[in-house]
Design goal:
Length: about 250
């Protein structure tokens, strides 16, 4: 698109100054000017830079509607899903600073490698275990049962990694399973159909598990789906502690 056409599309609010992390080896931050537009999201801004100013800019997204969890970045110091974050909500005096998520290796620019994040889901046994002889019929789970309510509270996670990026314990201890994997484990602990609870509770109660959480709530504060991994982890702490007492008595 020509510069004139770009300017014509801009609304009357003028320009945004956008600082984008390009890696220490490339001088750190690079600054771009982007036209402000009505209802513009942070992801719109990054996409406009990549399409119209610098095609080498690397970032990640897929759905653009808050479902896939792939577009998270640090925006003005705060981890966010960028496809559902409006510029008007995140900019500070017309300035936006974009960095890759923390606690994961950077592949390039704003794209991080999420492999360790997903490996921890596996390590926390964050998958349904039907047992060796699953029932043929559908299980009946009452919608108003306490277990169902606990599972419902955490089940809408989109694996975006925002909570993981916000967690200082992950920064201090890279082995820590982290809020998303533990939140997932808690939904499965409350799944009455699951037959893998012993292995799961063993997995989440080790040195890098739920008891390492300092309950400082960053994960819960920043989760774009308004989930509360801190409370899920508190549930795991209760259940694993009770299990130890039972074994000792
Ligand atoms: S509450 Fe626990 S998991 Fe959440 S950010 Fe704090 S230390 Fe990390
Ligand atoms: S718990 Fe929330 S912040 Fe963490 S991965 Fe899931 S949706 Fe993202
Ligand atoms: S692009 Fe899918 S959640 Fe943002």
């Amino acid at each position: 698109m020509s510069a004139a056409a770009t300017a014509a599309r801009a609304d009357a609010d003028g320009q945004l100054t956008v600082r984008v992390w390009r890696g220490a080896e490339h001088g750190g931050f690079q600054t771009f000017q982007v036209a402000r537009r009505a209802n513009q999201t942070i992801l719109d801004v990054v996409t406009e830079i990549q399409r119209e100013q610098d095609a080498t800019l690397a970032y990640r997204y897929a759905c653009r509607v808050g479902m896939c969890g792939s577009c998270a970045m640090v925006v003005n110091g705060r981890p966010r899903w960028t496809c559902r974050t409006r510029v008007a909500r995140a900019e500070e005096g017309g300035q936006i600073t974009l960095e890759p998520m923390r606690n994961m290796p950077v592949v390039k620019d704003l794209a991080v490698d999420m492999e360790s994040f997903f490996e921890k889901w596996r390590d926390a046994k964050g998958f349904f275990e039907p047992g060796e002889t699953p029932a043929n019929d559908f299980a009946v789970v009452r919608p108003d049962s306490p277990e169902r309510a606990q599972a419902d509270a955490g089940v809408e996670c989109i694996n975006c990694g925002v909570c993981y990026s916000a967690c200082d314990v992950v920064s201090w201890n890279p082995e820590y399973l982290g809020p998303a994997a533990l939140n997932r484990a808690w939904t499965l602990v409350n799944d009455v159909r699951d037959r893998g609870q012993d292995a799961r509770l063993d997995a989440v109660s080790g040195d890098a598990g739920c008891h390492s959480c300092h309950s400082h709530m960053s994960c819960t504060e920043f989760c774009p789906k308004a989930l509360a991994p801190t409370y899920a982890i508190a549930g795991l702490k209760r259940v694993t502690a009770r299990r130890v007492w039972k074994r000792g008595s």
